[in-house]
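Example for tutorial group B:
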């Protein structure tokens, strides 16, 4: 077992652990991305779908452990295990989504209900009120990278490693100037992107639950604050990763204990970000539980409810509505927003994002030899 394999398997299991609590974090009227009226929150199929979903997570966890300990191969272990975990996790979610949607359609849950769309056009203008101190750890890490690069540059050889394999050994090299630049440029770009999303999020169409609009507006404002905290925590985690890369590129982190130190620092960073996610997840689950108690007492047939718009949400995750002028909309579950893939600008943003990611990979490969 290599250090990278162990870390990726731990990260995969951590993702599954967080996914275990997703059902509690979902809005009570959007279980697994299916829009339902408030009087169906306690429907038996929803509890059954949760049980099957969590049973699937246990099976996936066993597969992750098996891939790491018994199927030692780059395709199935290490980064591959995380990719496979995400794919299987999506399939488990989609299965639960499909089961609830089928029962909803068969029993016609929206029969006789008045359906409307309610939005708050001022919600996106509310200040998140998050202190810039949340950004301090990531700035300190970035400053440490700059100091290390300046101090170590004169002593570096003409050619330095730029990529490390699963065994922790370098497998690609480039000139020291290009190597340091290809470490700094992605760091700055990713920091800027996440920071922009944290403090200057895109204008979302904030859809409000008409059965209890004031409570839902307050819930969404608090969720925006939670999202900012998570994004700032992600910047810190990203900078820890790049700092570790800088330490290896500049040969500061080397020797017999380098892998152990790398594992300890990366493991600590993973635990910190998971702790933040767990805290936000717990708070979100409590808010949704309170909202569920307030809205599950029964919905009279003349009550106004949120429009059944499942046809615009394939799989309960992606939004595709060519007739909607909004480019970004709130996610059906979780925090933040998602792109309207049916909007021309939404399609263009998706293409630009893909080109950006591919460009970083090509840049790293082009400068390495």
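The residue assignment follows.
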């Amino acid at each position: 077992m290599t250090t990278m394999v162990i870390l990726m398997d731990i990260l995969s299991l951590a993702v599954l652990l967080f996914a275990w609590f997703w059902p509690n974090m979902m809005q009570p009227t959007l279980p697994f991305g299916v829009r339902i009226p408030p009087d169906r929150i306690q429907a038996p199929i929803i509890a059954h779908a949760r049980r099957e979903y969590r049973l699937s997570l246990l099976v996936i966890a066993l597969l992750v452990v098996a891939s790491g300990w018994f199927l030692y191969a780059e395709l199935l272990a290490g980064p591959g295990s995380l990719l496979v975990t995400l794919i299987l996790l999506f399939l488990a979610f989609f299965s639960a989504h499909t089961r609830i949607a089928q029962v909803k359609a068969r029993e016609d849950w929206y029969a006789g209900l008045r359906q409307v769309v309610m939005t708050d056009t001022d919600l996106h203008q509310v200040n998140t009120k998050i202190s810039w101190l949340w950004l301090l750890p990531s700035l300190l890490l970035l400053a440490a990278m700059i100091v290390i690069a300046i101090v170590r540059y004169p002593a570096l050889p003409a050619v330095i490693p730029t990529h490390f394999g699963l065994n922790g050994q370098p497998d690609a090299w480039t000139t020291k100037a290009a190597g340091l630049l290809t470490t700094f440029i992605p760091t700055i770009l990713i920091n800027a992107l996440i920071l922009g999303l944290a403090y200057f999020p895109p204008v979302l169409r904030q859809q409000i639950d008409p059965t209890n609009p004031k409570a839902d507006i307050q819930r969404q404002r608090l969720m925006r604050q939670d999202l900012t905290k998570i994004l700032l925590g992600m910047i810190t985690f990203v900078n820890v990763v790049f700092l570790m890369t800088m330490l290896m590129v500049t040969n500061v982190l080397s020797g017999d204990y380098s892998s152990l130190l790398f594992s300890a620092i990366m493991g600590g960073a993973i635990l910190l970000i998971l702790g933040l996610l767990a805290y936000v997840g717990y708070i979100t689950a409590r808010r949704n539980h309170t909202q569920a108690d307030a809205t599950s007492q029964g919905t009279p047939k003349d009550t106004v409810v949120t429009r059944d718009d499942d046809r615009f949400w394939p799989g309960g995750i992606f939004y595709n509505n060519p007739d909607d002028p909004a480019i970004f909309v709130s996610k059906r579950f979780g925090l933040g927003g998602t792109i309207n893939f049916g909007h021309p600008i939404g399609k263009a943003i998706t293409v630009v994002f893909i080109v950006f990611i591919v460009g970083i990979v090509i840049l790293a490969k082009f400068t390495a030899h």
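The CA atoms of residues 111 and 234 lie 43 Å apart. Compare this with the pattern of hydrophobic and polar residues in the output above.
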